[in-house]
Design goal:
Blueprint lengths: L1 H13 L4 H7 L4 H9 L7 H10 L16 H10 L1
Helix pairs in contact: 1-3, 2-3
Length: 82
């Protein structure tokens, strides 16, 4: 969420929107927008975040994390071929 907040803040500032203006556009409070941007809001619905990002022409997607740890499939292939 921290990265999403940073993205939303930079997009908002690039469009010269105040937190209040963005909040009004999406029916949220200014405090909610501030919490999203600063990663201090305890819970925020994905639909709200997605709506804001869509409004800026972005989409919310999930990507696999990069990890140095082998996956279960990789371990099975190694053990299966030994």
């Amino acid at each position: 969420m921290e990265q999403i907040g940073e993205v939303i803040r930079s997009l908002r500032k690039a469009r010269k929107l105040s937190q209040q203006a963005l909040a009004q556009q999406y029916g949220m409070s200014r405090a909610t927008i501030s919490g999203i941007e600063n990663n201090t809001v305890s819970e925020i619905g994905l639909r709200k975040v997605e709506a804001i990002l869509n409004g800026f022409g972005y989409e919310l997607v999930a990507v696999p994390r990069k990890s140095n740890r082998p996956t279960l499939d990789a371990l099975q292939k190694v053990n299966f071929h030994d």
